Amino acid sequence: MGEKGAAGDNISFLLSLRAVREFRPDPVPEKVIGDILEVARLSGSASNKQPWEFVVVWDRATLRALAAVEGYAYHLKDAPLGIVPVMAGEREEQESYDEGRLCERIMLAAKAHGVGSSIGWFVGSGVAEVKELLGIPQERRVRSAISLGYPDGAARRRRGAPARKPLSEIVHEERYG
Amino acid sequence: MGEKGAAGDNISFLLSLRAVREFRPDPVPEKVIGDILEVARLSGSASNKQPWEFVVVWDRATLRALAAVEGYAYHLKDAPLGIVPVMAGEREEQESYDEGRLCERIMLAAKAHGVGSSIGWFVGSGVAEVKELLGIPQERRVRSAISLGYPDGAARRRRGAPARKPLSEIVHEERYG
Which chain B residue lies closest to A81 (C-alpha atoms)? Predict the structure, then answer.
């Protein structure tokens, strides 16, 4: 990159996001949560339907219960905070896409404040269990949750950065084939 | 928001993103496209599968043809550039979510450089037509495209900003119900 000024800063910021799954127990300040929710609120969506609500969870027993249901959201266990998007349950494909956009923004807003995050998926019986735990109506759709908290740097250094495919493997010009 | 420093700047940046559907004809510099693709490349994905490739399209005839298929990607017609994510086609729900994360990052990377963008959907027969136009194998999944270009400010001002639901309508603490 190496640009000067705001463009370079913003690109560097976007490039800096990594999933964080190990957290310090320090609470996330209300002001930071406010910024995260505001960035989430302004997410774009198909036909601007904004097909989402959020359950913000601090309660340790609830976070542990969510971490334990079928799926891959185990990292909620030690996170000081979790956000569970509750989607309208009307248009599966578009809502999954919109939920991805939303969650990327939540992770970036957290990162802006030095707060780490990662996405966990609920699968199989985990989906119904989450609805039961959080009082979410059956007709709504739940598929993911975001763990949030200040990163445990030591755990981080042990893991290193995830590999990504090079551009030469994934970019095609004008036509795929 | 009103914070000082990098956190406030990054939050303001995230809050500033709006879909842009009217473009000036000026080309998007190669350096900017490079940054956008690099931000896309580093996107997170379920199980780090990175289930994507991209077709970058500059050719006017191709962009017009893509804009004309069944769906909502008409804004490719006058965009100097389009990016079509080609997804692996293995896990429908996770890939739709990952495509949303990816496209949000592409839009933000473009915005960092003052480049506007919007997401268009292909539906019905449009999906097969896009595959045919771009030489994408049948087993791959195509569902959206991103138009990119410098915003036509006059058109923008005529439209105004999209409404979003207030936080009070979408945020629940600890439990939904």
Answer: B174
Which residues 6+ apart lie within 8 Å of B110 measured at CB?
A: B32, B36, B116, B117, B148
Give the number of domains in chain B: 1
Give B175's pLDDT tier (boundaries 50, 70, 90): very high
Dihedral in degrees, nearest 10, Cα atoms A132, A136, A140, A142: -60
- Nearby residues of A40 by Cβ (< 8 Å), 6 or more positions away: A52, A54, A83, A102, A105, A106, A109
**pLDDT-based confidence at B1, cuts 50/70/90?**
very low
> Is A11 a domain residue?
no
CA distance B1 to B9: 10
ipTM score of complex: 0.94
The enclosing domain of B113 has a CATH number of 3.40.109.10
Domain that holds residue B28: 20-151
Q: Is A107 on the interface with B (CB under 8 A)?
A: yes
How far B128 CA sits from the closest chain A CA (Å)? 14
**Interchain contact, A134 vs B175, CB within 8 Å:** yes
In a domain, A164, yes or no: no
Contact A175 B101 (CB under 8 A): no
Residues of B in contact with A101 (CB under 8 A): 100-101, 103-104
Residue B32 included in any domain: yes
- The pLDDT value given to residue B149: 98
Whether the CB of B142 is below 8 Å from some CB of chain A: the reply is no
First-to-final CA distance of chain B = 29
Q: Is B164 inside a domain boundary?
A: no
* Per-residue pLDDT at B144 exceeds 60: yes
Tell if the CB–CB gap between B56 and A96 is shorter than 8 Å.
Answer: no
User: Helices then strands (H, E): number in chain B?
Assistant: 7, 5
| B172 to A56: CB separation less than 8 angstroms, yes or no | yes
pLDDT band at A102 (very low <50, low <70, confident <90, very high): very high
